[in-house]
Amino acid sequence: MANGYTGKVLHVNLTKGELTVEEPEEKFYRTYMGGSAMGLHYVLKETPTGIDALSPDNVLALCTGVVTGTPISGQSRLTSVAKSPLTGCIGDAQGGGYFPAEMKFSGFDAVIIKGKSPKPVYLWMHHGEAELRDAGHLWGLTTGDAEDKLKEELEDKRIEVLQIGPAGENLVRFAALISMSNRANGRTGMGAVMGSKNLKAVVVRGKQKPSIAHPETFKELQKWGTANLEATGMDGFGKYGTPGETTSQNKDGGLPTYNFNSGTFDKHEEIDGITLYNDHLRGHERDEQNRFGRDTCFSCSVKCKRVTQIDEGPYKTEAKYGGPEYETIATFGSYCGISNMDAIIHANALCNMYGMDTISCGATISWAMECWAEGKLTSEDTGGIELKYGSAEAMVKMTEMIAKREGFGKILAEGSQKASEIIGRGTEDYLITSKGQEAPAHMPQVKRSLSVIYATNPFGADHESSEHDPAYKAYPERMEQIGLTNPQEKLALNEEMMRFAMVTQHLSSAVDSLSVCAFIFGASFQLYDADKLVEVVNAVTGWDTDITEILAVGERR
C-alpha cells in the first residue's frame, strides 16, 4: 500500500472532454516526489516544442507532494507548472492554504490538463471521482463571488476551490491561480494559461487521508515542531508574517524603492510588519489580532497569513481577501513610493479578487511610474491618469484597469517587458526583469548570490529559489547538513558563494518538488532543518531516503 500518496494522477483533455486516471508505480514517486519535479516531467513530456503559451497545446500540471495532507506544519502546498505566457520559458508557481491537502483527500496526487474547452467549465474532483461541469454562470465573477456560488451549487461549504478571476479570463500575462480567495499560485502567469483553456476552476472534496508509514515517529516530529516555535523564532514570524522583513530589508539597503533606484524608503515604518499588525490586522481595535487577524494553512501551527478589513473609505476591503505579504507591501509600496497602507491592502485585495500576481502587478506599475517620471509616458498614453510616484490613487486605479484590460491597463497587462516593446521610446531602459519576469523585492546589490539566481533561474527572477546571502554565516550548523561548511560574509561574491547559491537552489527546488513550505522547511531560519525534512519524508513514506537523494531531486528538476 502506498504511504503519503494516492497513487493516482488525473489526466484531463478539455478539447475532447475526456478524463483518464494514471496509476504510476512507486519508482515514479521516489524519482520526482511530487510538486515542481513531477509537474515539469509531464509538461516536458506532453507539451509540443515551439507552441504559444496560451494555445490549447500548452499542458498545465497541478501537483501535490508525497507528504501533502499529513497533519504537520508546512505540507499543504500545490505546484502549478506550464509554459509561461510571461516569460516564454517554463512557468512554476507555488501556493498554500487548504486546497492542496483537500485535493489529496479527493483521491488524486496531481491533475494534468491539456486542450481547450469549447465553453467555460470547472473540474469537480470528489471522493475518487472527477467530472467537468458547466461554468458559464461563473465566468466574469470575482474569486470571492465564484467560490460562494460553487459552495451553494454543490451544497457543501467545505469544498476547496482553485480558480482564476477575471484577470485570468482576460489573459493578463501575470494572472494567478487563487484559492480561498486569498492564496495565490502567483508567479509566471499560470492563471492566464488556465484562462486560455476556458477552465474557470478546479473544485475538490474528499476524505481519503494519506496513510503514514511510521505514525509514532511522525507524531514525534509533529510535536517537536509545535514545541519549538519559540526556539526557532517561528512564533515571531507567525505574529508579524513576511511583512516583518520590511524594516530589516530597509536597514540593509535591500528594500527596492522607486523601481529599484534606491534600496531604502524613508517612510518604511509606515508600511512595515509592526504597523500592519498594530494598526491594520482585523481585530486590532480590540487588541485581538491574534484571534481575528491571523490565518493559517491546513494543519500548520505557525499562522503567518494576514487578515485585513477596511470597513469604509475609498479603500474598503473585505476580510476574505486576506492581507499583504512583504513582497506585496514592497511592490505596491516602496517600489511606487507609496506609504498609504490602506491603499496597499486594497491593491492586494484587488489582485486576489481578480486573480493577479501582486509582484508583477506592482512592479509593472512602478516601471510605468519611472517611465512617467522620465518623460517617456504622458497622460495621452495613460488616458489622463498621472502615474506619479507616491500616487496611491493612480496605483489602485491602474491595478483594476490591468485586471480588466481597460485603457492603458491593456498594455500593462502584458507585463513590463512586453509593454516596453509595445510603447518603445526608450522605456526598456527602466525594466527590472529576468526572462521577462519582474524582480521580487530584494536588491541584487546586497544579496549578490541571489542576483545570480535571478539571472539564471529557468522561470525568471524568483526570491524563493535559493537561500539568501546572509543565511550562510547566520546558520552554519544547518548549512553543514547540506554540505556547506565554509561560511561567507553576506556581501561576498566568490566561488564559495556561488556554491552556496547552487546547493541551496537544489534544496529549494527539492522543497518545491516535495510541495512543502519554504518558510517551514529549509537550511536557514525555518522551523524544520534539512535533516528533519528527511525524517518527515521517511516517516510518511517508509522510504530510506537521505539528503543526497533529496538534493538530487531538486537538481533534476
From TrEMBL:
Belongs to the AOR/FOR family. InterPro entries: Ald_Fedxn_OxRdtase_dom2, Ald_Fedxn_OxRdtase_dom3, Ald_Fedxn_OxRdtase_N, Ald_Fedxn_OxRdtase_N_sf, OxRdtase_Ald_Fedxn_C, Tungsten_al_ferr_oxy-like_C, W-dependent_AOR. This is Aldehyde ferredoxin oxidoreductase N-terminal domain-containing protein. One of its GO terms (molecular function) is metal ion binding. Keywords: 4Fe-4S, Iron, Iron-sulfur, Metal-binding, Oxidoreductase. Its cofactor is [4Fe-4S] cluster; tungstopterin. Residues 5-208 form the Aldehyde ferredoxin oxidoreductase N-terminal domain. The keyword DNA-binding does not apply. Pfam families: AFOR_C (PF01314), AFOR_N (PF02730). The lineage of its organism: unclassified sequences, metagenomes, ecological metagenomes. It comes from marine metagenome.
